[in-house]
Amino acid sequence: MSQPTFTRRRFMKTTSSLASGMPFLQPRKARKPNLLVLWTDEQRADTMAVYGNTRIQAPNLNRFAKECVVFEHAYVSQPVCTPSRSTVLTGQWPHASTCVENNIPLPAQIPCFPEILSDPEYRTGYFGKWHLGDEIFPQHGFQEWESIEDQYAQYYSAGRDKSAKSSYCQFLLEKGYQPDQDSGVFSRNFCSRLPIEHCKPKFLEMKTCDFLKRHRDEPFILYVNFLEPHMPFNGPLNDLHDWREVTLPPNFDDPLEDNEPLRYRRSREQTIRSVNQGCDLSTVEGWRQLIARYWGLVAQVDRSVGAILKTLADLGLDDDTIVVYTSDHGDMMGSHRMLAKTVMYEESVGVPWLMRIPSLGRRQRIIRGRFSHIDLVPTLLDLMGRPMDHAVPGQSLVPLLRGGKLAEDHVYIQWNHRPERDAAARQKKKTAAGEEGGGGNDFVRTVIAPDGWKLCLSDRDKCQLFDLNRDPYETTNLFDSGRHDEVIRRLTQKIHAWQKRVSDPVAV
After folding, report:
1. Out of 19, 372, 378, 452, which could bridge 396 as a Cys pair, Cβ 3.0 to 4.6 Å?
2. Is 80 helix (H, G, I), strand (E, B) or coil?
3. Using an 8 Å Cβ cutoff, are 224 and 208 in contact?
4. For residue 361, which phi and psi values (nearest 5 degrees)?
5. Using CA atoms, how far apart are residues 396 and 119, in angstroms rounded to an integer?
6. 3-state DSSP assignment of residue 36
7. CB 129, CB 225: distance < 8 Å
């Protein structure tokens, strides 16, 4: 059933106007839709109830999901920070933006969403982690800038002040904290040990709510990026979830056979020999303790998201604001006994993706299928009434949300490195790896088909083929089984055709 255009909130506004002497039912001036993008760093999809996890204390995210379009399976363009962020903000593939790995600055000539929309009436802001170069300096069409990271000064452009401090650093200095770094800034470990009211999520919450209040009468575009639940896996809510009650991933004990990529197996072995935040990852107990901490960071973000959404509602902006919630990549967090990202397993490349779209109503709709972040920018352009920019390679998902079909129904994912930097290391590892190959600087191109088949082609490491319908936790690599040659041929052709279409120069 369609939503009524005259909501209770607007009825209350109108009756208030009557009490103040204004004409009853005075026409409300139509306003352009606002955009609020809330996103996290390293949050895998199964960290809220709508994606199957009812154990994490995330009531605000769970309540928000009940009012959203929820994409059943959402994927990043590349499972690491900088490349993925470049796609979310520009709508470009990492190879096209040149942001193929971490700490590569986004070129000035590659426009971000406010620049693509190009509407001077909008007030714009970017708050939180950026990780696309010149971390603490306003850029790419964002007028207001609140930064939280000080560890990227070595990557600043020529002429930038490397001694300048982030907004969050200034906040902590004003609170009387003494920096723990010789450069006069605060480390992530230091910040993770602070009281919750002085942690990064609370800082971003305060800045965001202030922005919303100041711009309540203007159209706005605001991106808010939380560092959490990214490492260090530590915070004030470490003990919120009893680690003894933590459920391990279903593929926790998957051994990673010899036909899995060497890089993945090396990463796994390194992880299970490590101690992370006091958690011994050679033991089941250590993994449960670390996962409980990760859940605590999700809960910490949840509290600040709840406060932001409440402020949006209190200001009467709900009916005028598109709200997006997603993450830049996932985290293995015990799946295959691995940690972090950079691999093509579902837990690394999959993220939550929710959108509350006033024009489509305030009810939960699970959109079945598999979807890519490459389509986020064109979808937002469509929702905000701007003609499709043909320089953006993705497609709008709005026709699908309104009952139609999409032109592209396959998902593509990249893994890249900078070959000019890695040439010597590549040759060294090639010699060390012997005939097996791989183990480091490989290129990977992945396709996931609507029928659930997933093919990962590597230029020099092991390739992978999974039937996600029968093996959703990817415990059996079928690439060398000899039983699915036709599937491999079909999906290889898909990858190569896509590469040609998007001018991807990598040979796999």
Report:
1. 378
2. coil
3. yes
4. 95, 165
5. 19
6. strand
7. yes
Q: What is this structure's pTM?
A: 0.91
Q: Distance between CA 331 and CA 348 in Å, rounded?
A: 5
Q: Are 446 and 412 in contact (CB under 8 A)?
A: yes
**DSSP 3-state assignment of 329?**
coil
Going by C-alpha positions, the residue among 392, 329, 341 that lies closest to residue 75 is: 329
Integer CA distances (angstroms), 199 to 164, 194, 333, in order: 20, 6, 23
Question: Residue holding tokens 């009434």?
Answer: 385
Mapped to the 3 state alphabet, what secondary structure does 127-146 carry?
EECCCCCCCCCCCCCCCEEE
Structure tokens given for 354: 């929710």
Q: What does the alpha-carbon distance between residue 242 and residue 354 come to, in Å, rounded to a whole number?
A: 28
Q: pLDDT tens track of the chain, all 508 residues?
A: 344 343 444 444 444 443 444 433 444 456 899 999 999 999 999 999 999 999 999 999 999 999 999 999 999 999 999 999 999 999 999 999 999 999 999 999 999 999 999 999 999 999 999 999 999 999 999 999 999 999 999 999 999 999 999 999 999 999 999 999 999 999 999 999 999 999 999 999 999 999 999 999 999 999 999 999 999 999 999 999 999 999 999 999 999 999 999 999 999 999 999 999 999 999 999 999 999 999 999 999 999 999 999 999 999 999 999 999 999 999 999 999 999 999 999 999 999 999 999 999 999 999 999 999 999 999 999 999 988 777 899 999 999 999 999 999 999 999 998 765 554 554 554 444 444 445 568 999 999 999 999 999 999 999 999 999 999 999 999 999 999 999 999 999 999 999 999 999 999 9
- CATH superfamily assigned to domain 31-253+281-405: Alkaline Phosphatase, subunit A (3.40.720.10)
The tokens 């809510």 sit on which residue? 237
Asked if 114 and 85 count as a contact pair (C-beta separation under 8 A), the reply is: no
* Per-residue H/E/C for 206-275: HHHHHHHHHCCCCCEEEEEECCCCCCCCCCCCCCCCCHHHCCCCCCCCCCCCCCCCHHHHHHHHHHHCCE
Q: What angle do CA 369, 384, 207 make, to 5 degrees?
A: 95
Packing angle between helix 167-174 and helix 200-214, nearest 10 degrees? 110
| Contact assessment for residue 245 and residue 330, using Cβ atoms and an 8 Å cutoff | no
Rounded CA Rg of the chain: 23
10 Å Cβ neighbour count for 484?
Answer: 17
Residue 70 CA to residue 445 CA, distance in Å, equals 26
